[in-house]
Design a protein that fits this description.
Elements (H helix, E strand, L loop, with lengths): L2 H31 L6 H22 L7 H27 L8 H33 L1
Length: 137
C-alpha cells in the first residue's frame, strides 16, 4: 500500500466516523429541541429528515469504491463538511434558540446538504472524467 493509499484510507475512515458522529449528534440535538413536542410521529419524521443526508452520503460511499480517486476524495471531504457543518448549525441553534420558527434549521439543513452533495460529487466526477480523457487522448 502506497503512502497516498494510506492517506486516502485515513480520510475515508475519518469521513465515516465523522458521518456517524454527525448523524447521532444532529438527531440528538433535534430530540433536545423537540423534547416538549407531544407528537411522537412528528418527532420521528423530523429525526428521519435530519438523518437523511448522512444516510444518503453513507449509501453513496458504497459504490464510490469504483469511482476515481478525485471523486472519492470529494465525497469523503464532503462527508466531513456535512457532518461538521450540520453539527455547528444545530449547536448554534441550541445555544441561541430562535423564538419563532424553532424548527427552521432542522427543516432547511437536510435539503441544502443534499443539493450541495450532488453538486460537489458531480463536479468532481466531471473533472475526473475530463482529466482521464485528456490523459488517454
Amino acid at each position: 500500500m502506497t503512502r497516498a493509499d494510506r492517506g486516502f484510507v485515513g480520510l475515508r475512515t475519518a469521513a465515516l466516523i465523522g458521518l456517524l458522529v454527525g448523524a447521532v449528534g444532529s438527531v440528538g440535538l433535534l430530540l433536545r429541541a423537540t423534547s416538549r413536542n407531544p407528537s411522537l410521529l412528528l418527532v420521528v419524521l423530523l429525526a428521519i429528515w435530519v438523518a437523511s443526508p448522512f444516510v444518503l452520503l453513507l449509501l453513496a460511499s458504497i459504490p464510490a469504491k469504483r469511482w476515481s480517486m478525485l471523486t472519492r476524495a470529494a465525497l469523503n471531504g464532503l462527508m466531513l463538511v456535512v457532518a461538521l457543518g450540520s453539527l455547528a448549525i444545530y449547536v448554534a441553534d441550541a445555544l441561541w434558540p430562535r423564538g419563532a420558527q424553532g424548527a427552521f434549521f432542522f427543516i432547511i439543513v437536510p435539503p441544502v446538504a443534499w443539493v450541495s452533495s450532488a453538486i460537489v460529487v458531480s463536479v468532481a466526477a466531471i473533472i475526473s472524467r475530463r482529466r482521464d480523457a485528456g490523459e488517454t487522448g
